[in-house]
């Protein structure tokens, strides 16, 4: 069974037992969360497609960790103008494991 969910402005294709890193959500480690923006569910070659979201479908997951990705270095340069700018950014994430996919 597979599903496509939307969270943090991004879409993820998921399966039961899969670990994924999503945009940070306010949840404690070990907490059960419910993701209700399910766009598509596929099971046994049967597809259910939402317009855009399936009503009554949700995904239950458990929070494994909160963290930050590796640093992205940003360097801006204007040639012959003596302009250089160094900047960095670390995006926060929440790592979850998918426990079940529910369809009603």
From TrEMBL:
GO terms for biological process, alphabetical: translation
Keyword Isomerase listed: no
PROSITE patterns for this protein: RIBOSOMAL_L21
A Pfam family recorded for this sequence: Ribosomal_L21p
GO CC aspect terms: cytoplasm; ribonucleoprotein complex; ribosome
Protein's UniProt keywords contain rRNA-binding: yes
GO MF assignments: rRNA binding; structural constituent of ribosome
Keywords: Ribonucleoprotein, Ribosomal protein, RNA-binding, rRNA-binding
Subunit-level organization: Part of the 50S ribosomal subunit. Contacts protein L20.
Protein family per UniProt: Belongs to the bacterial ribosomal protein bL21 family.
NCBIfam families per UniProt: L21
Main function: This protein binds to 23S rRNA in the presence of protein L20.
HAMAP family: Ribosomal_bL21 (MF_01363)
Name of this protein: Large ribosomal subunit protein bL21
Native species: Candidatus Kinetoplastidibacterium desouzai TCC079E
Higher taxonomy: Bacteria, Pseudomonadati, Pseudomonadota, Betaproteobacteria, Candidatus Kinetoplastidibacterium
């Amino acid at each position: 069974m597979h599903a496509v969910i939307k969270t943090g402005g991004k879409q993820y294709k998921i399966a039961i037992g899969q670990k994924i890193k999503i945009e940070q959500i306010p949840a404690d480690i070990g907490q059960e969360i419910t993701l209700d923006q399910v766009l598509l569910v596929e099971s046994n070659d049967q597809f259910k497609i939402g317009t855009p979201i399936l009503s009554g479908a949700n995904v239950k997951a458990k929070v494994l960790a909160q963290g930050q990705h590796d640093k992205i270095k940003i360097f801006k340069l204007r040639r012959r103008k003596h302009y250089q700018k160094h900047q960095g950014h670390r995006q926060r994430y929440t790592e979850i494991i998918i426990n079940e996919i529910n369809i009603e």
